[in-house]
Backbone:
């Protein structure tokens, strides 16, 4: 959240305003991730939440929210408070006209959820666009099946398991100095 | 299908449920591939099978099926049985609201088919989306031409030939220790 | 702007015609960037300017223009003059049927703006395409919020700060011989 | 056009059927390129030719053709003859339901044209898809401006100049043993 060089003191105030309020509101959260990925940005301009189009989107079934009250770049802790309140107990928020946010117990799950959420956005954007041409509506997963899938894939430990290979890949590329990928038990 | 570290015993139950039942039902199958690629996921939410839009899609002419009975993440062998039954003698299945699956005699052909199927999904999604804007319907290959093309490109040996360069590239990048790319005769 | 080998004297006349006129018209401009990126090209064929769909697009709020008078490849300084006139005091121009152009005080901000503008084009193209299928109009940022966001993110120093990591990455990859990433004060 | 290992004699018959007939019909052609790129495939399923949407597409103004007589994979020289006849004196053909083909005097220009044509397909697909959502028709370049641009960019020497950096990049990555990028005069 801080970027500084000897000749500057530019802190990422917006990042601090968001992250600090989420940690205040959610003591169970060990990590939150937020960025302006391309598909996340595009989806967050649609004013929609994720449709349950694939097994993977069910990880966010009843477990993500759209925060649609964009007030400009987040510079006051008030705005961070509003986002934290909207997020509630969920693992993800679509920040309207802004980008994606995921939160959870471990860094691994939060990174895995973020990557997964961005892919879900890409999938829904592409599927929606194609249906305009084919004239055939998309197929949605039923509520019962979505709930069953969330139960199987949507817990913190599932997310941790999903995130491990991402970190192990980084470790393999950057070397053991990264202290990552030490097993499935959170450090 | 198994991912384990000293401190865990998390097996990929879903993968085992799918793959084991396909191998049981299809003794000719030496390999099956399944993953949630982005374009595969998006296409599998459309409830459609591949249109014969390009020479390459004809590799799947009368040789792929949509399994549209998504019941949640596959945790019971029953679901794997259903998928294997739907696949039948074909080389590929679109698993509705889920992802792609290819099967065949050799690892090479199955990987080649998987990559090709994912590209066919990407092609159809992009072509459909564009036709919504142009207002001009896509051009479909005739049944006779599709059949002729399948005969020329759709056999196991064609797939093996298609897959070889993929493995040779991996071998060139990872070194000869991979025991891949030894010629066109399956090992 | 010049590409030459011992056996040739082919100069990029079009690039010179554009860049020289911008520097003549805008003494504050230390750098201008222009290229035919894929999403920039596609968006510049739509005859539209950026909608305020995301926080990032607000960097160009009332700060970009569409130059829609494509006369063929720019070979005369007259055409460069027209582009410079259309750009005015703004940081970016969408050159209709052509590509993107950004300009600013420092190389860092101009590169950051260019990358950001291209992503904004990609975002809007994907969001628009998806809305054709969903039937739901996109959500636009209000004028007040867009202005507030421009004030926070749209200044030259913000762009410089945004561009630094891009150059630091290049420096990390190509070595310290590049003389880049020396801090937040323009050299 | 030939792929062989000690244990096989599988030749790329389809490639030979296409390329040999083009060389027979066009003595001026030193090189032809054909492949099934993703965007090329998708565009070649639309039954359309390139609209003049960007400066770059004008390189193909009155200089490309749609061959819309897909008969299945090209295994007979007759089909190659038909393609060569359709191509005529032009630099590119969109092979319907199949893929892209470019031809020219030098390898450099042909590769540059191929890459450019594929990008033009990507641009038009994305622009069309977006216009379905925005409801606003795309802006087309006028005939006079397209012709002027073709005159400036569409000649063999322009293509050679465009292709040089592609080969120089390959040379830089693979070493001087590639005998590429020796200047702007064709070898």
Residues:
């Amino acid at each position: 959240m801080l970027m500084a060089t000897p000749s500057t003191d530019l802190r990422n105030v917006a990042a601090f305003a968001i992250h600090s309020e989420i940690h205040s509101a959610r003591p169970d959260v060990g990590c939150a991730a937020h960025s302006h990925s391309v598909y996340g940005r595009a989806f967050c301009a649609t004013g929609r939440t994720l449709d349950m189009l694939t097994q993977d989107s069910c990880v966010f079934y009843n477990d993500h929210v759209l925060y649609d009250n964009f007030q400009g770049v987040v510079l006051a802790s008030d705005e961070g408070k509003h986002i934290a309140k909207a997020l509630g107990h969920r693992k993800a928020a679509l920040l309207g006209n802004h980008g994606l946010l995921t939160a959870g117990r471990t860094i691994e799950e939060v990174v895995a959820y973020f990557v997964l959420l961005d892919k879900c956005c890409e999938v829904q954007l592409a599927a929606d666009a194609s249906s305009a041409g084919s004239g055939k509506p998309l197929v949605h997963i039923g509520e019962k099946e979505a709930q069953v899938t969330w139960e199987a894939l949507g817990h913190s430990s599932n997310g941790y398991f999903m995130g491990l290979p991402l970190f192990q890949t980084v470790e393999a590329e950057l070397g053991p100095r990264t202290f990552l990928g030490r097993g499935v038990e959170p450090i």
